[in-house]
Amino acid sequence: MVPLGWGAPFRWLALGWRDFRAQPGIGVFYGGCFWLMALTLGMVFRARPEYAMSIASGCLLVGPFLAMGLYEVSRRREQGLVPDLGSSVTCWDSHIRSMGMLVLVLIVLELLWGRASLVVFAVFFNTGMPSTTGVLNAIFNLENWEFIVVYLAVGGVFAALVFATAVVSIPMILDRDTDAISAAITSIRVVFENTGVMVLWGLLITVLVVLALLPWGVGLVLIGPILGHATWHAYRGAVAWQEDPNPDAAAA
Fold first, then answer.
1. Where are the beta strands (DSSP E) in the chain?
2. 50 part of a folded domain
3. What pLDDT does residue 41 have?
4. Which of 63, 124, 234, 250 could staple 147 via S-S, CB 3.0–4.6 A?
5. Are 174 and 90 in contact (CB under 8 A)?
6. At what angle do helices 220-238 and 169-176 cross, to 10 degrees?
């Protein structure tokens, strides 16, 4: 592991922006995919909220494979190779077993998160699962402050677990073809050994994604690929290998 300074997350974003500018066509392709996923999830949530968790699970299945394509672009640029859309789209095929196992772990965490959220609703609302409007009113109504505190606490725990498990594991699988368990453990170690910096990184990701979702999620076309490229540089800055000079780690 590499000790990280407080400026590292901002440097990762700058490098992500540099990679996006170098290959804007590929970036917009992936950004458009992220946008379509967000639109689909939003429409399902508004029309049939009971199916939103199933769609979210599908997004969690597809999302890491899309992000891996962005990591491949940054990896190729780092190695002095010319990135192309075809190689980025198919880069996961030689890592399918490790990626499949990691995605399965993430989906299990997401399903547990969804179940825990339903339990919180059941405890505070004994009239049954509220409608979409009811959910939003419950979350944004300060009179339900006990529910809000518990709901955010439960969500925060599971969000932290997902973040810690995935923050560098997927780019590590691409870079080293390691197994999912080793990659997940390394990712968790990075978070524990650089907790403050990684919390800042998580907050930056959250803020940028929230801003990208307004209005209609169109900002994901830009923010999505930038964060994807930046995540590659987060991995390169946080994990060093003895035989690898790792320029990102040296500058972190």
1. none
2. yes
3. 84
4. 124
5. no
6. 70
Q: Which residue, 20, 105, 34, is CA-closest to 65?
A: 34
Q: How many domains, the chain?
A: 1
**Dist CA 166 CA 239 (whole Å):** 14
Q: Which residues of the chain have pLDDT under 70?
A: 48-55, 57-58, 61, 125-141, 242-245, 247, 249-252
- Half-sphere exposure of residue 213: CA atoms within 13 angstroms, side-chain side: 12
Q: Is 3 inside any structural domain?
A: no
Task: Round to whole Å and give the CA distance between 1 and 192.
Answer: 10
Q: Is residue 91 part of a domain?
A: yes
Q: Which two tokens stand for residue 156?
A: 């925060």
Examine residue 215 and say whether the peptide bond preceding it is cis (omega within 30 degrees of 0). yes
User: What is the pLDDT, as a whole number, of residue 247?
Assistant: 66
DSSP state letter for 82 = P
Is 2 a domain residue? no
The Cα-based distances of 233 to 87, 128, 129 in angstroms read 19, 45, 42
pTM for the predicted model, two decimal places:
0.87
Contact assessment for residue 68 and residue 174, using Cβ atoms and an 8 Å cutoff:
yes
Handedness of CA 97, 102, 105, 110 (dihedral sign): negative
- Sign of the Cα torsion 35, 36, 42, 43 reads positive
Residues in the chain: 252
Range of the domain at 18: 8-251
Cβ–Cβ under 8 Å, residues 230 and 16: yes
**CA 179 from chain center: how many Å?**
19
Residues 73, 49: contact at Cβ < 8 Å?
Answer: no
CB 225 within 8 A of CB 22: no
- pLDDT value at position 117? 78
